[in-house]
Amino acid sequence: MKILVTGATGNLGSLVVQELLKIVPAESIAVSVRDPQKAEHLSAQGIDVRQGDFNDYNSLVSAFAGIDRLLIISTDDLQNRVNQQAAAVKAAKEANVSFIAYTSAPNAPNSKLVLAKSHSETEEVIKASGIPYSFLRNNWYLENEMATFQSVLQGGPWVIATGEAKIGWASRRDFAEAAARVLTGEGHENTVYELSGTPLTQEELANIFAEAMNRDVQVQYVDLETYSKMLSSTGMPEAVVGLLASLQKDIGDGELNIESDDLEKLLGHPTTPLKTAFQELLS
């Protein structure tokens, strides 16, 4: 069995590869990256590094040749994501890949989250391909809040624009391990997993952060208009400000408040305690 991970030099992909190496030999792992020179450290470990560009269909067909199980990590090109990922699915079909796992969004088909539509459309493309699949609907990476963590460590307030809404944070490594378990395990054909930690409010997360870092944290609730002005004052492009404000609104409306034990079931153990995750992330 040969497993390939796309985007393997990215934040999530690199962790998935690390987790795979704990389960299967390096020669069973392949990766596709735009620039193989950036993956020389993987080649040195015996991993099969292949060139694959989501904007170059033929490169994807070549990269997926001889692959049994494929993890498509969603691209960060929000405008072109669906077309890019549809090309990857088509290439997988041409290369006779027998299983696709895809990192999707929470409750993708029904979510109002601004990012969910492209994930839902990609899920439909994968279903239509006829290739057995597993949709890994990752909730919110703890690392997504890094800007807040750094600001608080520098003495700033913990700014909350999502009110009392709850979010299913977990460490990125936990999501990566779950992906590795699906790629190497059995019985995951045509499955959907809602992968989430225990939903918490931002203030509850701030309290865990305060305990982990052994420091006082000042919580500041703001409305979306104030939040947008705060982002704009940093010189952030208005398009990015608009996207982040939309995300905060959707999260505040409860789009990430999903109760599920799928993550712990896939891991076979409890998720990493957030206190521990903070200490590992910020030590």
TrEMBL record:
Signal peptide: none annotated. Gene3D superfamilies: NAD(P)-binding Rossmann-like Domain, UDP-galactose 4-epimerase, domain 1. Pfam families: NmrA (PF05368). Residues 2-255 form the NmrA-like domain. This is NAD(P)H dehydrogenase (Quinone). It comes from Fontibacillus panacisegetis.
